[in-house]
Amino acid sequence: MLKLEAVTKKFGPRTVLNAVSLELGAGQIVAVLGESGVGKSTLLNVVAGLEAVDSGRVLFRGADVTAMDDDAQTLLRREHFGFVFQAFHVLPHLTVEQNVALPLVLRKFSSEKAHEKAAQAIASVGLAGREGSMPRELSGGELQRVAIARALVGDPALVLADEPTGNLDPQNAGQVLGLLVDLVKGKGSACVLATHSLEAAQLADRRFRLTSEGLAPL
Hints:
Layout: E1 2-11, E2 14-24, E3 29-33, H1 40-47, E4 55-60, E5 63-64, H2 70-80, E6 81-85, H3 96-106, H4 111-124, H5 140-152, E7 158-162, H6 170-187, E8 190-195, H7 198-201, E9 206-211, E10 214-217
Parallel strand pairs: 3-8, 3-9, 6-7, 7-8
Antiparallel strand pairs: 1-2, 1-4, 4-5, 9-10
């Protein structure tokens, strides 16, 4: 599904990703551990084609993401990737259903199909009945559930999760992360989970630590 081949990324004189290599198959969850600022978000951005590499390749289903132009990378993200962020990134002026359906709207789904799939996704994260709620009416844990529903509504092949429980209390963090893992596994997606939490990483199939030296298995 996903293969990184000696990916190196620099910002000025600083090497953030140092010859990082990784392979990930369908249905697998990989956790990338590391302190804040070590490059976990940069790694996810490189996988998604949001950051150019200095050397190495990112392959998704055999296609070289690093060689694609901007339009091809945008289409790849829209059609095949799902994203979950620490800060939720739920749009405050849209209802829960509108937020969740947004990826489908961008992919030109009919309004009926988008409504149907959004309702299913919202129910899958335990928020049935909250479709018409505004984000300001939801707790942090509920907002992250909305973000997970939005990430998975289009049945992505690859989910990129960047510190998805970083803004949650321990109880909510455990519930939300367990939900994410169950849904990703249930859909047969692959997932790269960037986290500083060893507890969160325990739910992954494999764990790696990212340092200035590169990516090392734990």
